[in-house]
Protein backbone atom coordinates (compact mmCIF):
# COMPACT_ATOMS: atom_id res chain seq x y z
CA UNK A 1 0.00 0.00 0.00
CA UNK A 2 2.80 2.45 0.84
CA UNK A 3 4.56 1.71 -2.44
CA UNK A 4 1.41 2.59 -4.37
CA UNK A 5 1.06 5.82 -2.38
CA UNK A 6 4.68 6.72 -3.15
CA UNK A 7 4.21 6.04 -6.84
CA UNK A 8 0.99 8.04 -7.04
CA UNK A 9 2.34 11.00 -5.08
CA UNK A 10 5.71 11.14 -6.84
CA UNK A 11 4.63 13.70 -9.49
CA UNK A 12 3.16 16.01 -6.85
CA UNK A 13 6.22 15.75 -4.62
CA UNK A 14 8.49 16.38 -7.58
CA UNK A 15 6.60 19.53 -8.53
CA UNK A 16 6.66 20.77 -4.95
CA UNK A 17 10.43 20.22 -4.83
CA UNK A 18 10.89 22.17 -8.07
CA UNK A 19 8.72 25.05 -6.83
CA UNK A 20 10.65 25.20 -3.55
CA UNK A 21 13.96 25.31 -5.40
CA UNK A 22 12.74 28.10 -7.70
CA UNK A 23 11.52 30.06 -4.67
CA UNK A 24 14.85 29.59 -2.87
CA UNK A 25 16.78 30.71 -5.96
CA UNK A 26 14.63 33.83 -6.27
CA UNK A 27 15.17 34.70 -2.60
CA UNK A 28 18.92 34.23 -2.99
CA UNK A 29 18.94 36.50 -6.04
CA UNK A 30 17.13 39.25 -4.12
CA UNK A 31 19.59 38.90 -1.22
CA UNK A 32 22.55 39.13 -3.61
CA UNK A 33 21.09 42.19 -5.29
CA UNK A 34 20.54 43.91 -1.93
CA UNK A 35 24.11 43.14 -0.90
CA UNK A 36 25.48 44.61 -4.14
CA UNK A 37 23.48 47.81 -3.50
CA UNK A 38 24.95 48.04 0.01
CA UNK A 39 28.45 47.62 -1.42
CA UNK A 40 27.74 50.30 -3.99
CA UNK A 41 26.56 52.62 -1.19
CA UNK A 42 29.83 52.04 0.64
CA UNK A 43 31.80 52.87 -2.48
CA UNK A 44 29.68 55.99 -2.92
CA UNK A 45 30.53 57.14 0.61
CA UNK A 46 34.23 56.56 -0.10
CA UNK A 47 34.01 58.61 -3.30
CA UNK A 48 32.44 61.47 -1.35
CA UNK A 49 35.08 61.30 1.38
CA UNK A 50 37.93 61.30 -1.14
CA UNK A 51 36.41 64.21 -3.06
CA UNK A 52 35.84 62.31 -6.31
CA UNK A 53 32.16 63.36 -6.36
CA UNK A 54 30.32 66.42 -5.12
CA UNK A 55 27.74 66.48 -2.35
CA UNK A 56 24.97 66.98 -4.92
CA UNK A 57 26.08 63.96 -6.97
CA UNK A 58 26.32 61.94 -3.79
CA UNK A 59 22.82 62.92 -2.66
CA UNK A 60 21.26 62.02 -6.01
CA UNK A 61 22.99 58.64 -6.28
CA UNK A 62 22.39 57.83 -2.62
CA UNK A 63 18.68 58.56 -2.98
CA UNK A 64 18.42 56.22 -5.98
CA UNK A 65 20.30 53.42 -4.24
CA UNK A 66 18.32 53.73 -1.01
CA UNK A 67 15.06 53.72 -2.97
CA UNK A 68 16.13 50.52 -4.77
CA UNK A 69 17.15 48.92 -1.49
CA UNK A 70 13.82 49.83 0.11
CA UNK A 71 11.94 48.35 -2.85
CA UNK A 72 13.91 45.11 -2.63
CA UNK A 73 13.35 44.79 1.10
CA UNK A 74 9.64 45.52 0.67
CA UNK A 75 9.36 42.85 -2.04
CA UNK A 76 11.23 40.36 0.15
CA UNK A 77 8.92 41.11 3.09
CA UNK A 78 5.80 40.72 0.96
CA UNK A 79 7.10 37.48 -0.54
CA UNK A 80 7.83 36.16 2.95
CA UNK A 81 4.32 36.96 4.12
CA UNK A 82 2.81 35.27 1.06
CA UNK A 83 5.01 32.22 1.63
CA UNK A 84 3.91 31.94 5.26
CA UNK A 85 0.26 32.17 4.28
CA UNK A 86 0.63 29.37 1.74
CA UNK A 87 1.96 26.88 4.30
Question: What's the quick description here?
Answer:
With 87 residues, the chain is mainly α. The protein has one domain. It has helices at 2-49, 55-86.
Descriptive labels:
mainly alpha, single chain, 87 residues, 2 helices
Description:
- This protein has 87 residues and is mainly alpha-helical.
- The chain has one domain (20-81).
- Helix content is 92%, strand content 0%.
- It is built from two helices and no strands.
- The longest helix is centred in the first third of the chain and has 48 residues, at 2-49.
- 0% of the residues are buried.
- The model has no long low-confidence stretch (mean pLDDT 86).
Instruction: Label the overall shape.
Output: rod-shaped
Estimate what percentage of residues fall within beta strands.
Answer: under 5%
Question: Percent range for helical residues?
Answer: over 70%
Tell me the Rg in angstroms. Answer: 21 Å
How many angstroms does the end-to-end distance come to?
27 Å
Number of domains: 1
Sheet with most strands: none
Q: Structural class of the helix and strand makeup?
A: mainly alpha
Amino acid sequence: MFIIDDVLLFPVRSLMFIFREIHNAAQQEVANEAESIRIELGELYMMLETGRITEEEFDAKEEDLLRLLDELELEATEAGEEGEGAN
